Amino acid sequence: MNKFLVSNITRFVILVLIQVLILNNINFLGFINPYLYVLFILLLPLNLTHYKVIFFSFLMGLTIDLFEDSGGINAAASVLIGFLRPSFLRFSFGISYEHQTVKFHQTPFAQRFTYISLLVVIHHLVLFSLEIFNLSYIILILKKTLFSSIFTILLILIVSGIFQQNKR
Amino acid sequence: MQQIVNFLIKYKNTLLFLFLFLLSVFFTIQSHSYHKSKFISSANFLTGGIYSWVNNIDMYFNLKEYNERLVDENKFLRENLAALSEKELDSVFLDTASYDAPYKFITAKVIANRYSRLDNFLLVNKGENDSVATDFGVITSRGIVGIVDETSNNYSRVISILNTNSAINVKLKKTNHFGTLKWNGKDPNIVQVEEIPRLAPVKKGDTIHTEGRSLIFPKGIPVGVVENYQLKNNQNYYDINVRLFNDMTNIGYVYLIKNNNQEEIKSLESNE
């Protein structure tokens, strides 16, 4: 258990620093940024109690908000996907999640991809809706959600792929 | 009672989620109204420290450009100084011992800059310890940047002009028609000026600068040039797009402006 704690705290700190110091400055085509810190919520231990998942997601989002001066948008989006996480785990991994036998890196690619993209898209949709907070910019919200999601999903697949190989 | 406790235990996840979610939404709503986002601010010891640590490395990459800007500014100031000494000195005697200069300038460095969202903030490395307070104007040698919004001991957060909540009084340089500087969130180099009446002779390339009524900026701080404008048939006001002199994506060093007469003027106005 202690090993889980250390690895998750390390992941938290590293992902926050990467997010606020590097990824927030990318601004590809003026508005596209990946939000890699979502990976922390995706990779929280699968058997972690639900309320802990919700709380840690909130903490992650709030830390990012603190750096970004963005009010509570990242916190809101993160706490929502933290809350929805068990349902999506059940949806994506099916029966093997129920029996607590899933190992994240050993799941079939299609299932992992479904899980990642569902949570990322929901996170980004809430994030950009709250960031822009104005229905007359709905096209901009959808545009940002679409492109940033693609960017984030790609980055998450690459990063989790690299760490998967390290573990073997 | 037992049932209430059972209910709380049964739905504790949902309740925790709702509580935290509503809290975040509350923070978000606060951040969308001017001068109210007090709770979540990067002007604190931790985030300010990390940003300033990274900025110490990052700034070396921009040194060349900052030096060129400095030389440009020095050239401009030297030309003005030379022109000033050509003129005969005025006989009006200014008693500098008893009167402060109306404006005091504090130099600072931008350590975090954002421009890709609708509501953008900057972080600068001077705070209350350097007598920075809320509502100081922020400019560079090229033009206007924003207004100080939150301060901590060593850092201050600045509302950028690239923030949909900011509104600054500006006017045309050649006439005295004034309007309000806003931003529509699209291009970090283009801002909008509203409320310039249709009587005003606006032309492409006209200079816009600050108006000096707002107590925050002195008169004549440059803002930008008119990029294009529109006057619809039944409108009384122009829609003007202004190209900024400043490159808001790379700011570097800034001046914070303290208006020494601000309190006096405010107290006069509140007496009315």
UniProtKB/TrEMBL annotation, chain A:
Parts of the chain that traverse the membrane: 12-32, 38-60, 72-93, 113-133, 145-163
Annotated keywords: Membrane, Transmembrane, Transmembrane helix
Protein name: Rod shape-determining protein MreD
Natural source organism: Mesonia algae
UniProtKB/TrEMBL annotation, chain B:
GO cellular component: a single term: plasma membrane
GO BP annotation list: regulation of cell shape
Entry superkingdom: Bacteria
Keywords: Cell shape
Record domain Rod shape-determining protein MreC beta-barrel core: where: 110-258
Similarity comment text for this entry: Belongs to the MreC family.
PANTHER family in UniProt: CELL SHAPE-DETERMINING PROTEIN MREC (PTHR34138:SF1)
Purpose of the protein: Involved in formation and maintenance of cell shape.
Protein name: Cell shape-determining protein MreC
Species of the source: Mesonia algae
Lineage: Bacteria, Pseudomonadati, Bacteroidota, Flavobacteriia, Flavobacteriales
